[in-house]
Every structure is written in C-alpha cells, then in structure tokens.
Amino acid sequence: MNLPTEIFGDVIVVHTPEELGADQAESFEAFMVNLERRNAVLDLDRTETLDSQGLTAILDTRDNLVELGGGVKLATTNSTNRKILEITRLDRQIEIFDSVLDAVKSFR
Q1: Residue ranges of the domains in the chain?
Q2: What is the pTM of this model?
Q3: What CA–CA distance (Å, rounded) separates 78 from 92?
C-alpha cells in the first residue's frame, strides 16, 4: 500500500484509502510502521468504508507511534466516519479535528 502523504515539520499527514477494512488493515499498518515521522495525522475524509479491522489498525498504529514517543490524531469532516468514531468510542481515545491543519497544529 502506498498512500499520499504531506509533511509539516515533524508531523506527517496520511490521506487514508477509500476503504479501510479487513482487506486493507495489514498493509495500512505496514505502511504506517515505515513512516519517516513519529507524529501522524490521519485524514479520513476520503475513506468511505471503515470497519472494525480498520479501527483496530488505527489503534495499533497509535500504540506503535506512542511507543516511539509520537502520536496519532484524526481529521475528518465526514459525518458517517465521525458517527462511527463516536459509537465505537474511539473519539475518547484519539483526538479528532475538523481540519488537517488544526490536527497538525495540535502537536505543538
């Protein structure tokens, strides 16, 4: 898996795939492990399918980056994804922002 990224100082923004589920979870985690930054913002706006395996991959990524002294924050304006994050209570474990720039700035 190769995902589009942007770098803002010590933060990397990863634009997640259209589908983040069982079929993509393993390759997503492998991609995230090899990032050149420890702080990551996951932009979920393009993601239309997000299932339990995708959520687990996000949490595993967060755990891996926290172990390295970094962290993960989410950015999305997609109402469906926001609802999924609320229902699963992931919004209580990872900060969620309306914009990528606000998420990037929050690392400072």
Answers
A1: 5-105
A2: 0.93
A3: 18
